[in-house]
């Protein structure tokens, strides 16, 4: 190995090949030769690279840990308000689930990014108005607009979080692509924390059961509820202080499942033909179609968000392009089903909401598909794929606000 290093000391590519052939032997041989190569700039760079000492994981400064702890406790406190104030749990959680976590995450990124006081006041006012609006909506068991508002309100709060994530500045544009990456990382860390929490819950309940203590009700009402409220905040903290541990995981998972999703969608479309069911007359089947669309779109977005010109993989981009094409077909079927149901039975709040969502998703998929095709043929830069992916997020924000705040008034709270 020493002779090969000496022969190729002025060839970066050959040294790189030697290094990846046998890393341990390369390091030992290079360090032994280094005294003879001290005046070589390339050798100096390799020496620093091979002998860099990895520091202990950085867990943020003391102030940041205090902020996260306080935010977690506040989230747990808000989650316990129904028990503390004897409120109806269904009423509270249906309308206020988004307010348990999103305002605190918005405050966290606002503090971290040092947003201006004016922007902070505007965000606080918007959140307070949204809180008052959703809780003052009439309580009707058959109110579709109430349910739609409750579903779309967290999406609108999510868009406010995206605005704050990048520093709360409209000038220069919001870094929506970075926000999408954060969401992919957050999903992975939340899944790991929930898995760990689930194992701990099973062990705890099992040990107390062996001791004759039945703590299931207390544990779920207090420990589990508070833990679930704090998980997104703790997970966000981990994504910010340990980016090297998590920023590659979500794209890897998405890339692994993209081929599986492509095959599954093709088989699903073929099976639909022979199943005897269709989204035109089966409402639940149509809802399944739309849930499938959202999941596949998220898969495409997280895959693209982790793809850069450096790690570009033509096969993976081709798979994403084919996946987007099949998803466009599924979206087209869902959209035609919605239009059919509107033509047959008239417009309702649910159909209007689904129609708007399908039109937005179809437009978005077409835009992303065109950019993916350009990346495959190398007619456009790969970075434009990520840009096209993030381009529609403000549009989704506007649509969620429309459904949340305008639909109840437009349809008379029906």
TrEMBL record:
Transmembrane portions of the chain: 92-109, 121-138, 145-165, 185-208, 220-240, 252-274, 286-305, 317-340, 352-370, 390-413
Keywords carried by this UniProt record: Membrane, Transmembrane, Transmembrane helix
Name of protein: DUF4153 domain-containing protein
Classification lineage: Bacteria, Pseudomonadati, Bacteroidota, Cytophagia, Cytophagales
């Amino acid at each position: 190995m020493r002779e090969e290093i000496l022969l190729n000391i002025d060839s970066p590519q050959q040294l790189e090949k030697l290094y990846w052939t046998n890393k341990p032997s390369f390091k030992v041989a290079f360090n032994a030769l280094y005294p003879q190569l001290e005046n070589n700039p390339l050798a100096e760079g390799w020496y620093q690279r091979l002998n860099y000492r990895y520091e202990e994981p950085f867990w943020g400064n003391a102030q940041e840990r205090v902020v996260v702890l306080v935010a977690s406790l506040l989230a747990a406190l808000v989650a316990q308000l129904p028990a503390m104030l004897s409120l109806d749990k269904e009423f509270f959680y249906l309308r206020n689930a988004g307010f348990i976590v999103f305002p605190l995450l918005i405050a966290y990124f606002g503090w971290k990014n040092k947003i201006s006081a004016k922007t902070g006041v505007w965000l606080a006012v918007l959140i307070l108005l949204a809180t008052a609006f959703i809780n003052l909506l009439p309580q009707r068991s058959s109110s579709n607009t109430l349910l739609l508002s409750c579903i779309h309100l967290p999406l609108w709060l999510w868009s406010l979080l995206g605005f704050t994530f990048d520093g709360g500045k409209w000038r220069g544009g919001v870094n929506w692509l970075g926000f999408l990456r954060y969401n992919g990382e957050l999903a992975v860390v939340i899944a790991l924390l929930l898995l760990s929490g689930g194992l701990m819950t099973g062990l705890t309940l099992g040990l107390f059961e062996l001791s004759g203590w039945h703590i299931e009700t207390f544990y779920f009402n207090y420990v589990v509820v508070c833990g679930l409220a704090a998980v997104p905040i703790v997970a966000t903290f981990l994504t910010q202080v340990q980016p090297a541990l998590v920023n590659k995981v979500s794209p890897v998972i998405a890339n692994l499942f993209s081929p599986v999703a492509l095959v599954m969608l093709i088989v699903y479309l073929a099976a639909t033909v022979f199943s005897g069911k269709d989204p035109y007359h089966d409402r639940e089947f149509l809802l399944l179609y739309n849930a499938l669309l959202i999941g596949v779109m998220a898969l495409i977005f997280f895959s693209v968000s982790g793809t850069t010109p450096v790690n570009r993989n033509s096969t993976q981009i081709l798979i994403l392009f084919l996946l987007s094409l099949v998803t466009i077909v599924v979206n087209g079927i869902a959209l035609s089903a919605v239009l059919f149901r509107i033509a047959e039975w008239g417009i309702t709040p649910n159909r209007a909401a689904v129609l708007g969502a399908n039109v937005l998703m179809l437009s978005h998929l077409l835009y992303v598909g065109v950019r993916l095709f350009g990346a495959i043929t190398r007619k456009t830069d790969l970075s434009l794929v990520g840009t096209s992916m993030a381009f529609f997020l403000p549009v989704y924000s506007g649509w969620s606000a429309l459904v949340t705040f305008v639909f109840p008034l437009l349809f008379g709270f029906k």
